[in-house]
Structure formats: C-alpha cells, structure tokens
UniProtKB/TrEMBL annotation:
Family matches, as InterPro entries: Glyco_trans_1, Glyco_trans_4-like_N
Source organism per UniProt: Rhodanobacter sp. IGA1.0
Protein keywords: Glycosyltransferase, Transferase
PANTHER family linked to this entry: D-INOSITOL 3-PHOSPHATE GLYCOSYLTRANSFERASE, GLYCOSYLTRANSFERASE
Residue span, Glycosyl transferase family domain: 195-351
Top-rank taxon, per record: Bacteria
Domain Glycosyltransferase subfamily 4-like N-terminal: 15-183
GO biological-process terms attached to the record: carbohydrate derivative metabolic process
Pfam families in alphabetical order: Glyco_trans_4_4, Glycos_transf_1
Protein name, UniProt field: Glycosyltransferase family 4 protein
UniProt EC number: 2.4.-.-
Molecular functions (GO terms): glycosyltransferase activity
Amino acid sequence: MRILVLSDLPQFVTGGAEKQAANLIEAWMDNGHEVNCFGRRMGSGCGSVRLGRHEVPVRRIGTIQRFGRLLRGISYLLSLAGLLLQHRRCFDVIYTRFLGEAALTVSLLKRTGLLNVALVATPASTGSNGGDLSLFAGLGFHRQLVHLLDTQCDAINLIAPAMANELRCNGFSGKRFAHIPNGVIVCHQPPVYRERPHCAITVGRIAAQKGYDLLIAALAALPPPLSPGILRIVGDGPEKEKLIALAETLGVAKAITWVGELDHADVMHELSNARVFVLPSRYEGMSNAGLEAMERGLALLITRCGGLDTYIQPDMGWVIPSEDSQALAQALNMAMSSTPELLAMMGERNRTTALQHFDITMIAARYADLFKSVIAARRTH
C-alpha cells in the first residue's frame, strides 16, 4: 500500500502528534508499505529523513510566513495542492495528522474533482480553546468547512473517546468515525521496580494547555516540608519563565527541578527513574508522554480529558477534573504519600494496559486495515 502522510516530523517539530506520526510511519514501513511524507517544516524542501532503519522521502509545503495568518493559509493551500496534484498517482491513501489545513486542502481538491484518493484524518485534540477545532472558530463559513471535511474524509479517526461528542456538537455527522488510539513503542525489557530515586515527573511542552500553573499551585497546597526536587518538569515552552516566577512566589521553587528539553532516550531514562507521572492538562487528545509513562511502569495522576483517562482504573492511579487545583493537590498528596510498593503495583498494571492496548505495531496494523477498507469502499462506488 502506498501511504502519503501529511505531518511534520520530530526532526523538525518536537510535538506529540509529530512523534506519533513518525512512530506510525516506521511501523508501516516495517510491514512493507511505501510511505512518503509532506510537511510545512521539512528543512530545505525535499529529500529524506531517517526513521529507524528506513529512509522516508519528504517534501516541504511552502508557506509565506509574513503578512498575517490569511496569506500564510493561502500559500499553504496552494503549495500543498500543487504537490498533491503533481504526485496524485503516487499514493493510495492520504493520512493527515490534525483535522486542519492539510485535511481541508485535500477535501477541497476531492470536492472539485481534481483528486480521487482515500483520505483519513486524525484530530490531535478537539478542545475549542486550542484543539484542532479552534482553526474554525469565528469563521463565518464554519458550517461549510465542517460539511466539506465531513463529506470528503473517508474516515475521521478519533484517538480519544470524548472527541466523538465534541465533533458532533460542531456539526460532524459521525457517520465515518473510526476509533484507533495513539500507540507507544514497547520496550520488551520490562522496567525495574526497585526504589526509584525520583517521585513525581511531568513531560510536555510548557504551555497553558498543559496546566502547569495548576500543578504548581497544587504543590504549594501540600503540607510542608516538601523535599527538594520532588517534582521534575521535563520540557520547554513559552510559559517557562512565568511558571518559574510563580513557583518562587508560592514558595515551592526548591521542590521543582526544571529539567529542560531532552531527546527521546533521555526522556525514557527520566521516566524509568520516577514513580508517578502527572498530567494536569486543561485539554488533551491522548498524551504520548502519558502512554510512555504507562509503558515504563509509572502510576498516573491525570485530568479527565476524555482520552487516556478513560483507560485508568483506581488501581492504576488517580483521575481528577481538569482546572481543579484543589482536587489536584489532594491527589498529589495521596500519590506522594503512597508506599513505593503501591506505586509499583499501579505501574505494573499500567504497563500491562500499554502492552495490551497501545503497542505501536498493533496500532499501525489497525490503521492499515482501516486504510484498506476505505480504499476498497471507494472502488465499489
């Protein structure tokens, strides 16, 4: 099968969606599929990127960055449309990571009869204050764009159960929804559950979505004294300096270690040395970092965003409402006062769940089956 992926890759953009796309591409190529990738941030323009033992052909989608969002969007549409029409006979299915400009461009070409190919889109998240659907917010032709996507996407895959209701509330019919979660690379050497040196860890872009301000406020609400470095924050982003100042103001600066941005191997090392993974997000699709923490055998403390939390039972960790610093403080206190044996038991159950439901090889195979089904359906019409 010839698959075209419309997504940036981690070599150029260090985001969860991009990492997920790369993991899927590698798994598909391991299974003999031919994969190309077009993305907006792809270096010099064309060439290849190494993913594991594979060289993936890539093309850059050109954009004009100056003069505002409108011109940037138009230049993106024209550049991607040109690439798609030039290579339209080179792929059997297009897979877009995000339900945004790429999916809209393909849908428009299909609607006008210029492109005849199966399209599968996967929203990364659907929160109206920053998810994929925020692209349409405030546009006078919102309903027309939703109808275009709803009719031209052969499948819209939902990585989190809560996305279905959110998309329906925004005008999608739901007739072509599929349900395949994100996947994680499984290390078949199990984690070691001896006494781990660090207690709590969180991994992700330091941005408002991730709720780190709520986490710092919750940390300040814990009974003193707090051990130095009891919370490790891995990542970087626009909110970092503001949050460092907040920690100073609330008197918990010494309890936090700002690790900074790390490569994937070092992130996995950090996870392997912690006991509890904290995900205080305001909204989320299905956190890749959370999946990696499950695979490495950590107990979870996460907010209820309708994704990963739907898999977490009480013997695996704590699930709390989003935007609730008091509930976060209570759960954080329980997690940090739990015995290493209890946290290890939770971690073992999380790893079992990761192996059963989220192994990337299994997830990639489910996608391949979905691709084959939508391709076959198009041929029968």
